[in-house]
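Ligand-bound model needed. 5-O-phosphono-beta-D-ribofuranosylamine.
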Amino acid sequence: MASTTLRIGVLGSGSGSNMQSVVDAVRAGTLDAGIGVVLSDVADAKILDRARAHGIPGQWLDCSPFKTKLEGDAERRCIEVLRGYGVDTVVLAGFMRIVKPGLLNAFPWRVLNIHPALLPSFPGVCAWKQALDYGAKVAGCTVHFVDEGTDTGPVIVQKTVPVFEDDTADTLHARIQVQEHIAYPEALRLLAEGRVRIEGRRVRIDEK
Ligand code: GRF
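Prediction:
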């Protein structure tokens, strides 16, 4: 795979700190990419304010009538908008909906997600809290390709953090987020450099 300039579309529902880390990497010249558009299913999500503050188009995507998935008309509109901005790589950054085959087939193996746990442990919501409640001594984050399961796609990058005795869900999540902001730009850089090969479940990273 040859190196390319990624044209990224971000989908998020929350604060957008991961999107910010991608913007920062692009600005620093450490990631060959541009963010074409940011879409959120939450009209007043901070991620949209952040995008607009950087001059990136930020749009609310009305996903009704569904509450937990992106399907139907909303999915079609989402694909249309992403294509309209020339997006080739879809970055899920705190997007609190299940994405369906419509989006995945529109961007084959080009939809990435970040999950706040070391998959396959603790898929689903509030993964850092699941890790804490379980009594894990090590936690972390995973950047992976999205497939049709929930948090099941091939892993590109993982980062670990220790779990301390006095951790709360918030302190642990904050420690994990520091690593997320390193992991997402790193995974996207590998993709931009054309060094990522998917072989079944395994993602091979080619040497530079
Ligand atoms: C992150 O913890 C990410 O791992 C999870 O949702 C959170 C999003 O945070 N999927 P932000 O909106 O990027 O700040």
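The radius of gyration is 16 Å.
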